TrEMBL record:
Gene3D superfamilies noted in UniProt: 3.40.1190.20
Source species, domain of life: Bacteria
Lineage: Bacteria, Bacillati, Actinomycetota, Actinomycetes, Kitasatosporales
Keywords tagged on the record: Kinase, Transferase
Any one GO MF annotation of this record: kinase activity
Domain Carbohydrate kinase PfkB: 18-309
Family: Belongs to the carbohydrate kinase PfkB family.
UniProt organism field: Streptomyces zinciresistens K42
Disordered: annotated segments: 91-111
PANTHER family: 2-DEHYDRO-3-DEOXYGLUCONOKINASE_2-DEHYDRO-3-DEOXYGALACTONOKINASE, SUGAR KINASE
InterPro entries attached to this UniProt entry: Carb_kinase_PfkB-like, PfkB_dom, Ribokinase-like
Any matching Pfam family: PfkB
Protein name, per record: PfkB-family carbohydrate kinase
Length: 334
């Protein structure tokens, strides 16, 4: 059942600061983009799902902190500075003198970009529930987590489990963010579904939901698998995103974008959607803001691209359903 396009969701997080918790790594990518084995030069950037969300939230003017741990090394200092640059509070990020900062290598190819991780034993893999005692968490309206963190170590899984405790002073958003290479055996489907079902807001790609819980799932069937969150967003790649609130659903098609690289677009979407909710937007406008923020990531080779001019964004958010559908190249709503 679809609700009116401009209707406000039945539930939204309270206005206030956001805390994003998780690992961020230094990232090396061929410059210009091409197969890693043929590259003569590499570009150094940073990459982390949770810090990507934090950086885009800061771009949207949302007060946000990032909590993590970094090695006492040049890459750790580079990561800290890059995440702080858009205005993210990094003052409570721990420096670990005995563990390194994680590293990833991007390998672009005709079928997409493969990512090779070097993160075993990293500083962030030693994070645990003690992170939740940091001052930013005590004052947070929303805590943002992903399914990457519980796959890093037993202590990281304990951190996510503790953050999702039944009695908590903040709302929790959880992006499933399934990374198959991080999960031993067949543990991911049950663990990620259980964690997601304890969050207030959940974001999941339709493709990853089908990989985890069934090859022919529709967005509605994903909601059946994860019934408890107050808000569930199912992202269908370049096609659309559907938000379930209570018993109702809103679907917004994605605008057409000339894609340079898809890595980081899901994190950007999450930030835009959350910013919309925190700003009191309607469900439709929050989904549109998610799509527009994702487009910023799709147009660049790194994970963090510039947002469009605020006036352009407002004009797009105010479009009628038919006007948005024309921009997206989708069939107009009935």
């Amino acid at each position: 059942m679809s609700r009116a396009p401009g209707a406000a969701p039945r539930w939204r997080p309270a206005p206030g600061p956001v805390v994003c918790v998780g690992e961020t790594m230094a990232a090396l990518a061929p410059d210009p983009p091409g197969p890693l084995e043929d590259a003569e030069e590499l570009r150094l950037s940073v990459a982390g799902a949770e810090s990507n969300v934090a950086m885009y939230l800061a771009d949207h003017g949302i007060p946000v902190s990032w909590l993590s741990a970094l090695g006492d090394d040049p890459l750790g200092r580079r990561v800290r500075a890059a995440v702080a640059a858009p205005g993210v509070d990094v003052s409570h990020v721990r420096t670990d003198p005995g563990r390194p900062t994680g590293l990833l290598l991007k390998d672009p190819g005709p079928a997409g970009t493969r990512v090779h991780y070097h993160r075993r034993g990293s500083a962030a893999s030693a994070l645990g529930p003690e992170v939740l005692a940091a001052p930013p968490v005590r004052g947070a309206a929303l805590l943002h987590l992903t399914g990457i963190t519980p796959a890093l170590s037993a202590s990281c899984r304990a951190l996510v489990t503790a953050a999702l405790a039944a009695e908590r002073p903040y709302a929790v958003s959880f992006d499933v963010n399934h990374r198959a290479a991080l999960w031993p055996g067949a543990t991911a489907p049950d663990v990620l579904r259980e964690l997601a079902d304890r969050a207030d807001i959940v974001l999941v790609g339709l493709d990853e939901a089908q990989t985890l819980w069934g090859g022919h799932l529709t967005p509605g069937a994903v909601r059946d698998r994860i019934p408890k969150p107050r808000v569930l967003v199912v992202k269908d790649g370049a096609h659309a995103a559907t938000a379930f609130t209570g018993e109702e659903a809103v679907t917004v098609p994605a605008p057409r974008v000339a894609v340079v690289e898809a890595v980081g677009a899901g994190d950007a979407f999450a930030a835009g959607f959350l910013a919309g909710l925190l700003r009191g937007r309607t469900t439709t406008a929050a989904l549109r803001l998610g799509h527009l923020t994702a487009a910023s990531a799709l147009r660049v080779t790194g994970d963090h691209g510039p947002l469009p001019d605020p006036r352009e964004t407002e004009a797009l958010l105010d479009l009628s359903p038919a006007g948005w559908a024309r921009r997206a190249g989708a069939a107009p709503p009935a």
